[in-house]
Specification:
CATH topology of the largest domain: TIM Barrel
Bound molecules: flavin mononucleotide
CATH architecture of the largest domain: Alpha-Beta Barrel
Largest sheet: 8 strands, parallel, barrel
CATH class of the largest domain: Alpha Beta
Radius of gyration: 19 Å
Shape: globular
Distance between the termini: 40 Å
CATH superfamily of the largest domain: Aldolase class I
Strand order of the largest sheet: 1-2-3-4-5-6-7-8
Oligomer: single chain
């Protein structure tokens, strides 16, 4: 693990060496992966929705505790627009708090009741949004410790406005007073140094880690991520006001066809967007099956390797970028002498 390069309010809040967070990943962010991120000096979030059976969820938290040797790790609580999918979240939050989890990433609809409970328990909460407008609104309403703003390059749900991270980062920092974490399209340390220079205090990655050895998905899925360049993601479901970015595959092309023909009944889309199809795809190694979240940072995910190797590369690149800025400034000073 590399030495700490940057200290920010985010490294302090999350008790981590590097200001690098690995966002929740449906089906994939389990104890093995999250512990690997934590042991490499970052913060990861076990995705509660992946473990609908409470006993399995508890076992996963116990496992993460063992694998991290008691270091802090996080839990992701995603509030869906479909209320029936959120019924278990309060109970899962209680389980996590009982198990001593003190770091949470919330996402989706503003989760007022969850945030209040997290703060009552003295824990840390970062809420994740897709636009600066939502960041301003959420920080105005909720007692958050940090806000993550994820640009349109991201895998999963980039929101409806589709503004990229390079625009959102300085705007969010200017308009929000709590620590800002930027996500969406990040896969190099140069980007990380740049975002910190813009005032972000941490970065949030998802796609870049999809090729980590500790992620349990079939190697054929990881290889698809390695092979993909930045043009090979698909944006679908904007017509359902639930825009999604993922692997450009047979499923997203079928959805795009339905959208182009004007289908507005969600029931027609349901078989294509079912979470069970994703799980099968990851298990069987079939990248054509289901909608599989992947962002444009796939272009930086160039080989399958352990999380700590990815993390070391990110930190080394961030150090090189910082050194480059120092050298450019020194050369300007010399020229002025
Ligand atoms: C495969 C995959 C699954 C994801 N699942 C979730 C999820 O269940 N909950 C959530 O809040 N975010 C989820 N995300 C979003 C990530 O946590 C993170 O915000 C996003 O990946 C950052 O952008 P990037 O993909 O460009 O790195 C997912 C992303 C990917 C790639």
């Amino acid at each position: 693990m590399r030495d700490a390069l940057f200290q920010t309010r985010i490294t302090e809040l999350f008790g981590i060496r590097h200001p690098i967070l690995a966002g929740g990943l449906m089906w994939l962010a389990d104890a093995n992966y999250v512990a690997a991120v934590v042991n490499a000096g970052g913060m990861g979030f076990i995705t509660a929705k992946t473990f609908p059976d409470f006993k399995d969820f508890e076992a996963e938290l116990d496992k993460a505790q063992r694998l991290t040797g008691g270091k802090p790790f996080g839990v992701n609580l995603y509030m869906s627009v479909r209320p029936e999918q959120n019924a278990d979240l309060p109970a899962q939050l209680e389980i996590a708090l009982d198990k001593g989890v003190r770091h949470f990433e919330t996402a989706g609809l503003p989760p007022a009741h969850l945030v209040e409970r997290i703060k009552d328990a003295g824990a840390v909460v970062m809420h994740k949004v897709a636009t600066v407008k939502h960041a301003i609104s959420a920080t105005g309403k909720l007692p958050l410790d940090a806000i993550a703003v994820v640009g349109s390059e991201c895998g999963g749900h980039p929101g409806l406005n589709l503004v990229g991270s390079i625009v959102q980062a300085p705007l969010a920092v200017a308009r929000v007073s709590i620590p800002v974490v930027i996500g969406g399209g990040i896969g190099t340390g140069g980007q990380i140094a740049g975002l910190l220079a813009m005032g972000a205090e941490g970065v949030l990655l998802g796609t870049r880690f999809l090729v980590a050895s500790e992620i349990w998905s079939h190697d054929r899925i990881k290889q698809r991520v390695v092979d993909a360049d930045e043009t090979q993601t698909a944006l679908v479901l904007a017509s359902m006001r639930n825009t999604f970015r993922g692997i450009d595959n047979e499923t997203t092309r079928a959805i795009a066809k339905l959208e182009a023909s004007g289908v507005t009944d969600f029931e027609v889309y349901r078989p294509y967007v079912m979470g069970t199809a994703q799980k099968e795809a990851y298990t069987e190694g079939d990248p054509e099956k289901g909608i599989l979240s992947m962002g444009q940072a796939c272009v930086f995910a160039d080989r399958i390797e352990p999380v700590d190797a990815i993390m070391d590369r990110l930190v080394d690149e961030a150090a090189a970028a910082t050194g480059r800025l120092g050298a450019l400034a020194a050369s300007a000073r010399r020229a002025a002498e």
